[in-house]
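Lab notebook, bench 4. Still working through the backlog of constructs that have no structural model yet. Next entry is a single chain of 244 residues. Request: give me the structure tokens for it.
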Amino acid sequence: MTVIKLNNLKKIYDGITVLDIEELEFETGKITAIIGPSGSGKSTMLSVINGITKPDTGSVSFEDYEFSPGSKTYPQDKRRKMAMIFQKPVLFNTSVFNNIAYGLAARKISKEEISKSVRDIAVTIGLENKLEQKAVTLSGGEGGRVSIARALVIKPKLLLMDEPTASLDPKNISIIENIIMNAKKSMDTSIIIVTHNMFQAKRLADNVVFILDGKIIEHGTCDQIFNYPENEQTRAFIHGDMVF
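Model written out:
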């Protein structure tokens, strides 16, 4: 099954085409890693999928809705099935508890259910003893975990992640990767993650998409892309060589 499908998708900035995708499907319940050099269009793709950025042509199909140039964004019922995590955690100047609870409160969930859900996921991310602490005083790794918890507590159908472990220490990278894997298994959440870390892609991904200059060069299973790439540019990139 397919959770998201891109059709004839283009995004152009100042006359330069930064995204040009004829067709791409993301499998339901899988983790897909998007890899490629800086400036290749990875984050733009994620932004378009999330509805933050409008495509100039084409569409993003999510369930029975098509996000296209004529759309404002996704309708609320679709929007609430998605969550986006940015490279730098966005934290509110309030408690860890209130940060995690934000999406549930917006959905008018009962206080009792919010309390249980927040405390349960706080245990999962290892911050159950810091729920009353202000989130902005946390370390970078802890802040990243709060950001992920806030996204996962609403049990999204689709989770989009843009370099969620960039600049973090190995301990926090391991914690966050475990959280991601657990979300896939326990919630059946479909996850699309942009990463520059090839080892992370190998550890996490079921499928991999290699993008260069806004175009899909190759995509397939993790094993296929890393062990049996068909394209010379793919082979060069995963071995750390320069690609143009």
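Notes after review: The beta strands are 2-13, 16-27, 31-35, 57-62, 65-67, 82-85, 158-162, 190-194, 207-212, 215-221. The first helix runs from residue 42 to 50. Flag for follow-up if needed.
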